[in-house]
Structure formats: structure tokens, C-alpha cells
From TrEMBL, chain A:
Top-level taxon: Eukaryota
Organism, scientific name: Miscanthus lutarioriparius
PANTHER family on file: CALCINEURIN B SUBUNIT (PROTEIN PHOSPHATASE 2B REGULATORY SUBUNIT)-LIKE PROTEIN, OS08G0442300 PROTEIN
Coiled-coil stretches: none
Gene3D superfamilies assigned: EF-hand
PROSITE patterns the record matches: EF_HAND_1 (PS00018), EF_HAND_2 (PS50222)
SUPFAM superfamilies membership: EF-hand
Keyword Calcium applies: yes
Domain EF-hand: 27-62, 91-126
Keywords, alphabetical: Calcium
Alphabetized Pfam families for the sequence: EF-hand_7
Protein name: EF-hand domain-containing protein
Entry-linked InterPro entries: EF-hand-dom_pair, EF_Hand_1_Ca_BS, EF_hand_dom
GO molecular function terms attached to this record: calcium ion binding
TrEMBL record, chain B:
Residue stretches making up the Phospholipid/glycerol acyltransferase domain: 194-305
Location of the protein in the cell: Membrane
Annotated organism of origin: Miscanthus lutarioriparius
GO BP, one annotated term: phospholipid biosynthetic process
Cellular component, GO annotation: endoplasmic reticulum; membrane
Keywords in alphabetical order: Acyltransferase, Lipid biosynthesis, Lipid metabolism, Membrane, Phospholipid biosynthesis, Phospholipid metabolism, Transferase, Transmembrane, Transmembrane helix
Pfam families: Acyltransferase
Keyword Glycoprotein: no
Family to which this protein belongs: Belongs to the 1-acyl-sn-glycerol-3-phosphate acyltransferase family.
Stretches that traverse the bilayer: 74-100
Protein name: Phospholipid/glycerol acyltransferase domain-containing protein
GO MF annotations, alphabetized: glycerol-3-phosphate O-acyltransferase activity
Superkingdom per UniProt: Eukaryota
Source species taxonomy: Eukaryota, Viridiplantae, Streptophyta, Embryophyta, Tracheophyta
Pathways involved: Lipid metabolism
Length: 175, 390
């Protein structure tokens, strides 16, 4: 591997830590740097979509394409900020904000029926027909007091998902 | 009623948190109706994806260890420098001369009489050690090629001699990188209806095993000088070639494998079912092809001692030549080879289950960890089929 730990200075680590609001410890940031360098095979300073897809565990994930859109071209600092949503030190609100960003593909701050439907499509694939999906979604929305034309904003998401046991944590191996 | 059936459908599809909990911790209730919250909460799927980004078992299989920086002090550093001098200055040129003289003889034996004068000159240039090596090697070459061509009629005698010669060649190779190999277990015998499988760390696995017994091996076609050696010398032991990227090749290869095993005077067949080189700490999934041939499978476990050199050949990072150079400039290549008991397909066992059982044995013997991934993912992406299954 071309990059060695000596390329990341203490100043860099602190800057990255600041950027992700201290979601990770300094040791974890060093480990993430090793991992970033490992993934970034051509040494371009960012991990391309292709390089992410070379991790089979990631490639078989149904939401991989969506995440790739968010991950493509990120440098290391932004990469850590992206992963900070999965740290045990971030609040549930921040995690819900991350989920909202995954849904909101056009980044206009609103999530519509179609956005939710397309995520559902990614998750269920050929197990459900389009009609079934639409039916389920409409029914569930109505049950919760919304309609097919409702738009959800971040506060709506917070209200719906709430603070209850949101298990979204990832452990960074420290070697 | 429509809603409850649809809701029941949804129960199957949403990420099942119940799978991760022990059964008795679940409240025993009928499947409840789906809430909007459950639909919007994609956190388990996201967590899996993030987990894969942060660390995944597949990449770990192919990680070569980065050299740890030593604690330099006034004592260790000169010692290390001295070691470097010896390794690069003495051992390496020796190995090179050794190998080059081998190749030289091979090449000029091919061209025959014209180069007589050159050969003599070369021999004078080398020291006494090289002289004996040269002599050995030139005997090999002068025997091999004539034998190959002249004894075309008497196949049995020819193959016996060629087998011995190849074994000798491999011993030469192994000696060139000061290989110290410990063999455990009964030596493989030449019988029909048996196949040998081993874990794969580098191309030299083959040479190490070949030194003891002449195997026929199934290998990927390589470019360059390795391809040249593949075509000429290894052809004599009855190797089978394939191309990883050619899909149709698979059936042809399967047929060739089957034919080879049936014949009693062929060399025993050696297969590396991982399909690719893996760093010597993990094993990836075995391909079932080797286990479907309907014969005994004899597992062989190979473990290299990391203290001396990391024998893993990362084919994406170095060419084979660089890899050989690295081996020759290290102190020694130390490894253990265990020949394990032949295994047979059990009643009602599928080829895949059989492969897994043998992989268990090899992994247990060589102290390797098992990983549930297909080795070919190193070169290709997982197909959309796998994503659907998820």
C-alpha cells in the first residue's frame, strides 16, 4: 500500500475530527484512513464508485446505488463525515437526518410518495409487483394520517421515526 | 382483509430484525399491522452497507501485511543493514545466477549445437558451486529435450523420466530461494481416481508440491516468460490450461479433468479450488468443480511461516517476476505441507457441502480462517442475482 500512517499528521486528524463533530476518536480516524487508502487503489484522493463496488459485501446491498451517489468523489474528510452518522456518539436526530438524506434524492428538503416508493422498490426487488408496492404504501400512509400527495420534511421524519431504538451503529476496527 | 394479507407480505420483505434476536425474547403476538415508521426506518440495511465500507471480510483475505517499522537503535540498525547487504548482495545474485544458468541451458539446449562454444565459456566463468549446479541443470536440459523428442514412441518410459526431471527442476527452484519445507503425512501415490486439492497462496505452491511428487496441475494461462515455461516444460507432466475469463472454457475444462482422472498412468491431478491466490491467513470458498469428479479427494494444507517472508502473491500488485525477486532476496521461505487423509463423497452430500467439509479440514490444519466469499470476486463484481437475494 502506498500510503503510510505518517502521511496523516496530528493536525489533519484534529481537523477531520472537528469536521465530523467528534463522532470518532483519533484512533478510529487513523483506522478509517487506512481503510480509505485501502479502498482508494489508484491513489486519487477519493474513492470512486467502482472501488466501492469492489467490496462484495457492499455491492450486494440493495441500497448500494443510492449510497454510491452520496459517496462518489468524497475526500477523506467528507468520507468520515458521511460515516459519522453511524457512530455511537451521534444523536438519533443526526441519524434520522442521514436517513432523510438517503430518501431525498433531489436534495430539495422534501420527500414525496415517489421517493419512498423507489426505496421500497430497491429493498423488495422482484418480490413484490409495482401495484402491490403502491397499495401497501398508500394504505400505510393513510393509516398514519397522510395522503398520497403528502410531502415529508425533516421534522416530519423526526416525528414519525421518533427516538425509539434506532440501531444504526458501526464499529471501526482499531488495529 | 386485503390490508392484512398485504401487510403479511410486507412482513416477509422488510429487514427482519427478528432474525437477529433469540426466539424466546420475541413477544408472542400475531403479525401486527405495518406502521409508517417501520417502512421509513431503513437503518438496518444502511448499517450493513456502512459496516461493509468500514471493514469487510473479503478484502481482508487479500491484504498483504505491511512491514512493521522496527525499533531502530544503535545495535539493531547496523545488523539490519548487514542483513540487507547479505540478502541483496550475496544471496540474491547467487540465486539469480543459479536460475539464469538454468534458463540459459534450457534456451540453448533448444537451439542445440551452434551454442556449444558459448556454453563452455559460461561454465568457466562460474565458481565451483555454480559448476555443480550448472552440470546438474545442463544434464537436466540435455536429457529433457532429447528425451521429449526422441522417446516419443516409448511413452511410458518417457513420462517416467520426465517426471523425475521436473521434480529435480523444482528442487532447483526451491533451493534458489532457500526453501525450507517440512512435509507431514504420507506422500501422494500415483493411483487413478484421485484428485489433490490445496489452498493457494502463490504460484510457488505448485513448485513446492511438485518437488516431492510430480503432479499435473490445472492453471490459468499466464503471459510472459511464465507462459513460455508453462507451454514447454509443464506440458510434459500433463497440465491442463484454462482461461478464467472465458465462460465456455469451463465445460471443456470439466471434461478434460474427468478424462485425466480416469486414466491410470497420468500424473495425479492437483487442483487449487480457491481459484485465486489468497493471503495465507484466510481461505475463500472452494469451487465445486474439483469435488464433482466422483473420485477420492486428498486435501493438502500449506502454511508459510510469516517470520521469514510473506509468500502471498498479490497478483494485482506485483508481477510474478517481482514476486520471485522478493522471495529470493529474503532469508528463506519456510513452510509446512500437510498431506491429509483422502476424503470421499458421503451419502446424500452435495458437491458444495463436500467442498466445505474439505475446506474445514484444510483450514483447521493450517490454522486459516474461513470466509464465505467466492475467490473470483477479486476479478469480477457480484452478479445482480446476489443483490436480489438480499
Amino acid at each position: 500500500m502506498g500510503s503510510t500512517p505518517s502521511m496523516l499528521t496530528q493536525y489533519d486528524i484534529e481537523e477531520v475530527q472537528d469536521h465530523c463533530n467528534h463522532a470518532f476518536s483519533q484512533q478510529e480516524i487513523v483506522s478509517l484512513y487506512h481503510r480509505f487508502c485501502q479502498l482508494d487503489r489508484n491513489g486519487g484522493g477519493f474513492v470512486s464508485a467502482d472501488e466501492f463496488m469492489s467490496v462484495p459485501e457492499f455491492a450486494v446491498n440493495p441500497l448500494s446505488q443510492r449510497l454510491l451517489r452520496m459517496l462518489d468523489g468524497l475526500n477523506f474528510k467528507e468520507f468520515v463525515a458521511f460515516l459519522s452518522a453511524f457512530s455511537p456518539h451521534t444523536s438519533p436526530q443526526q441519524k434520522i437526518e442521514f436517513i432523510f438524506k438517503v430518501y431525498d434524492t433531489d436534495c430539495n428538503g422534501k420527500v414525496a410518495f415517489d421517493d419512498i416508493l423507489s426505496i421500497l422498490r430497491d429493498l423488495t426487488g422482484s418480490f413484490m409487483t409495482e401495484q402491490q408496492r403502491q397499495k401497501v404504501l398508500t394504505h400505510v400512509l393513510e393509516e398514519a394520517g397522510y395522503t398520497k400527495d403528502s410531502h415529508f420534511t425533516l421534522p416530519d421524519f423526526m416525528k414519525i421515526i421518533g427516538n425509539s431504538e434506532l440501531k444504526m451503529e458501526v464499529e471501526v476496527p482499531i488495529d | 382483509m386485503a390490508s392484512s394479507s398485504v401487510a403479511a407480505d410486507m412482513e416477509l420483505d422488510r429487514p427482519n430484525l427478528e432474525d437477529y434476536l433469540p426466539p424466546d425474547s420475541l413477544p408472542q403476538e400475531a403479525p401486527r399491522n405495518l406502521h409508517l415508521r417501520d417502512l421509513l426506518d431503513i437503518s438496518p440495511v444502511l448499517t450493513e452497507a456502512a459496516g461493509a465500507i468500514v471493514d469487510d471480510s473479503f478484502t481482508r483475505c487479500f491484504k498483504s501485511n505491511s512491514p512493521e517499522p522496527w525499533n531502530w537503535n544503535i545495535y539493531l540498525f547496523p545488523l539490519w543493514c548487514f542483513g540487507v547487504v547479505i540478502r541483496y548482495g550475496i544471496l540474491f545474485p547467487l540465486s539469480c545466477l543459479f536460475i539464469v544458468s538454468t534458463n540459459w541451458e534450457v534456451i540453448e539446449a533448444n537451439i542445440t549445437s551452434k551454442t556449444f562454444g558459448v556454453k563452455r565459456g559460461f561454465r568457466e566463468a562460474g565458481g565451483p558451486v555454480l559448476n555443480t549446479c550448472n552440470r546438474m541443470v545442463s544434464i537436466f536440459c540435455r536429457l529433457f529435450f532429447p528425451v521429449h523428442f526422441l522417446l516419443k514412441g516409448q511413452d511410458k518410459l518417457r513420462s517416467k523420466i520426465e517426471r523425475k526431471l521436473v521434480e529435480m527442476m523444482c528442487s532447483v527452484f526451491v533451493a534458489s530461494w532457500t526453501g525450507v519445507i517440512k512435509y507431514h503425512g504420507p506422500r501422494p501415490s500415483t493411483r487413478p481416481h484421485q484428485v489433490f486439492v490445496a489452498n493457494h497462496t502463490s504460484m510457488i505452491d505448485f513448485i513446492i508440491l511438485e518437488q516431492m511428487t510430480a503432479f499435473a496441475v490445472i492453471m490459468q494461462k499466464h503471459p510472459g516468460w511464465v507462459g513460455f515455461i508453462q507451454k514447454t516444460i509443464l506440458e510434459s507432466v500433463g497440465c491442463i490450461w484454462f482461461n478464467r475469463n472465458d465462460l465456455r472454457d469451463r465445460e471443456v475444462t470439466a471434461r478434460k479433468l474427468r478424462d485425466h482422472v480416469q486414466q491410470s498412468d497420468n500424473n495425479p491431478l492437483l487442483i487449487f479450488p480457491e481459484g485465486t491466490c489468497v493471503n495465507n491467513q484466510y481461505t475463500v470458498m472452494f469451487k465445486k468443480g474439483a469435488f464433482e469428479l466422483g473420485c477420492a479427494v486428498c486435501p493438502i494444507a500449506i502454511k508459510y511461516n510469516k517470520i521469514f517472508v510473506d509468500a502471498f502473491w498479490n497478483s494485482k500488485k506485483q508481477s510474478f517476476t517481482m514476486h520471485l525477486v522478493r522471495l529470493m532476496t529474503s532469508w528463506a521461505v519456510v513452510c509446512d505441507v500437510w498431506y491429509l487423509e483422502p476424503q470421499y463423497l458421503r451419502e446424500g452430500e452435495t458437491a458444495i457441502a463436500f467442498a466445505e467439509r474439505v475446506r474445514d479440514m484444510i483450514a483447521a490444519r493450517a490454522g486459516l480462517k474461513k470466509v464465505p466469499w467466492d475467490g473470483y470476486l477479486k476479478h469480477n463484481r457480484p452478479s445482480p442475482k446476489h443483490t436480489e437475494e438480499k
